[in-house]
Amino acid sequence: MMELGTLEELPVAYREKLASSSLTPLWPMMRAALPYDKPNRRTKPHVWAWSDVRPSLLEAGRLTPMEKAERRVLILSNPGLGLGAVSATPSIFIGMQLILPGESAPTHKHSPSAIRMVIEGKGGYTTVQGERCPMEKGDLILTPSGLWHEHGHEGTDPVIWMDALDLPIVGSMEAAYAVDGDLQNVRGEPDSSQTRYKRSGLVPYNSLGSRRADYPLIRYPWAEVRDALNSLAGVTARGEAVQLAYVNPETGRECLPVLGFSALMLRPGETIKPVRRTSSAVLHCIEGGGQANIDGEALRFSESDTMAIPTHAEIEITNTSPTHPTFIFQVDDAPMQRKLGFYEEFARAK
Ligand SMILES: [Fe+2]
């Protein structure tokens, strides 16, 4: 590797002249800007324990009324990205959101895309462009860029969900913004997962023509995803990941442009070793628990815990229960990396 010149080697007068002209020499910072062989990663492998998150979120419910919060969210700040970081990984914003009985989070829309993964509580709902989606534990609900959405709660106990947004990406482009809207007119029919897209492999006939919607399916009910994982597990060799991707039923591709979503099942006692990928990820344990080894760091996780995985990480995940399956929801930035043309997977060293 070539030895590069440093800033100190340059005459002070030259450096001052460059600075006064808003110019910067690349070569002294070449290795920092474009590291050799592997990226420099500040993101730390990290687990946010539900036993820490939940009490703090409920305390936020006592301290801050909805009128003063608009969205009552605690952000998962990756410890490697600095105090108060608004990212769990460089591209993924993760927030934990609490809504108390009778509360609502008013209608708005924004340039970043978001999803909800429901963690606890009954009676919550999200309305997206007039489509009212019930929120049950493990349900995935999309609120894509530019679509009106609001949240409400008609149950009796707190409802908590995880938000994942591509906000760090949109924000880095200085393109993140939101606008408020009026209460939506709700269509008087069940959401599309129960009507137009009831079964995978079947789509409304007209969608094959020119009437394709960008975001045809908003809600992916957990009961169906869990059932599908169980069926896939029955035909998948042990040690091979039982993993299903959430896709747009009309295109068969990822359902949002930047972030991708999938669900993983680990059978009792099973260890999986996914290939090393250029994408970063956040794993949320829907059910069960286990141990993850990320770049040599052993991290235990239980139900409703959330874990950050840096880009290029070596990963191993074990379901430590001898009797029960573990189910994990994965968010990653592979869709964006594929579009930008640099997504890679690396074979594991033997
Ligand atoms: Fe929102």
CATH superfamily: Jelly Rolls
CATH architecture: Sandwich
Oligomer: single chain
User: What is the SS-derived class?
Assistant: alpha+beta
Range of strand content = 25-35%
Domain count: 1
Write a structural description:
This protein has a six-stranded antiparallel sheet, with helices on both faces. The protein has 350 residues and is α+β, with helices and mostly antiparallel strands. The chain has one domain: Jelly Rolls (Sandwich), CATH 2.60.120.10. The mean pLDDT is 95. Strand 6 (124-128) and strand 7 form a beta hairpin. The chain has helices at 12-20, 30-33, 50-63, 167-172, 222-233, 334-340, and strands at residues 46-48, 73-75, 93-99, 104-110, 114-120, 124-128, 131-135, 140-143, 149-153, 159-165, 178-180, 219-220, 242-245, 260-266, 271-272, 276-277, 281-287, 289-294, 297-302, 306-309, 315-318, 326-332, 345-346. It is built from six helices and 23 strands. 15% of the residues lie in helices and 31% in strands. The longest helix is centred in the first third of the chain and has 14 residues, at 50-63. It is globular and about 70 Å long. It binds fe (ii) ion.
